[in-house]
DNA sequence: TTGTAAGCGTTATCAT
DNA sequence: ATGATAACGCTTACAA
């Protein structure tokens, strides 16, 4: 219980024989300091083990050294991967991460967020999809003076304010792969209405069919909402079709697991009777039987890059000039859930 | 003067015609205030939409209204459930949640944590397993003056500092169920060495066998580390045994998924040829084929209770007298992965 | 290049 | 029961 032992800026100033402002300048890397004084002060700081008090800084600066993760994403693994990436970027800096889940669809969501941002005076926030797709939220951050970077499945904002994966192109490639294997009747399980990622993935799917001159009847498109259960429902409808699709692209892995589940219940063998491709490459993809061919997007890398953008130009961190990439490529992970169509 | 239009305590004091200290008293629910003044000040607070500045409070109180979640748990879903539970408890309070992952096995882990706690001056932390099992960490929190509550699979601390599930009893019951179905050769896949949960679950397993007077040869016990892959390895060893076990209890679902995977690769049917029980009831359990019988522990409830303990007696929150429960019961979720043994 | 004084918005001390 | 005044630890003017 030795709270008294923690040195303050005054202690450093006294021991170093300078004013606290000088110490403050050293801490904040002010350019106008004699190398002499700087070294001396830095030595004292090291000797005393002085660490600036974040609360005092927050008060004086009217800004907290806190980076928020704001999300309303239902996928635990995705959220964890984002946290992981952010923390990599924040490690060794003076920033901490604060997580703020939002209730999707809640009427008070925007107010909740405003309260949160205003009260805590966050330095910046990383917005995860789907809330990141909401322009009003971005404007809110702007108006409050809180930096923000949006994560998305397509270019949502300027490079400074966004990191994105190219879902459309990735799904196009995945679907093309299916077509290359000989599939012509390919079902599509959609993501939830209003999700940008759902739209992008659908567009990529359609791109591939169009390029191969394959018609896409509405009946081959089934609704879904990214849940396992919705994948089952969608697959049941698709597998009732006559003739049956020989392959299904599911807009995420969770639903793909539902598709696999439904197919198995009908005694269909995957991939012999039905090929399946998912999206996300969550752990479930590798654990399914057979292991699921899917699209992997570099979540953690994107989140790391986003966090670096947020803290760019602060302290030791690279200046904004050193641009972090904004577009990330997703890749097709080929496992065992795809084969050439049989004589279905 | 008003750079931001956000009212401060001074504004409230001026408008209400009292001193800032009086306003402070109102905010902090000081008992020695005339109901008259209180009402007047509260009215002004409401009119102005005044919200105390957390940074200033943190500086004056030398304590942040931040609750930390400290964890080194590899399971994304578990961590998310804990976050969920904490946020439920924190919702509507002045507290925010900060997440702090720790690198298990890192030599600097303890130092990292100390730095974090000292710098951020957290109000309290929720320690998740397995790091919560480390007494040194608890002592560290104590010495820094940071409240803490440990989550665990057995009573780790006093009621004030802990919420626990009774893993041993839950596994005993699960194993007894297996025995009741007629199984006698039951394999056990262990959790990682040094994890309290692994130990408790093993003990529960042994309790049940002992009560039923069933011998447990060492060969029926396989190592694991809570990962899917380790489940596969363990199952392969177990299924090589002659005679083969008719059932396997896996110390978590992830490994149980590996067991199912390995069994399927050998052409074994579950549950006809092999019954399997897991632990955790993560989403994977319901998605497996067949759906996995498993033990569900009330993670979110435990986390909520833990968070309530942490903020007990502050502001509107119930006094410490109103004790939150410390022990939580886990329940067996019967699905389709268990049946009576065949003629294996 | 460095120091002085005045905040930042709250709580604690000690009056009255 | 209430208020003046001094912390809390740091930063931003503005001087020197």
TrEMBL record, chains A, B:
Keyword annotations of the record: DNA-binding, Transcription, Transcription regulation
Pfam families (alphabetical): LacI, Peripla_BP_3
UniProt name for this protein: LacI family transcriptional regulator
InterPro entries named in the record: HTH_LacI, LacI/GalR-like_sensor, Lambda_DNA-bd_dom_sf, Peripla_BP_I
Domain HTH lacI-type residue range list: 7-61
Family matches, as PANTHER family: LACI-RELATED TRANSCRIPTIONAL REPRESSOR, LACTOSE OPERON REPRESSOR
Gene Ontology terms, MF aspect: DNA-binding transcription factor activity; transcription cis-regulatory region binding
Entry-linked PROSITE patterns: HTH_LACI_1, HTH_LACI_2
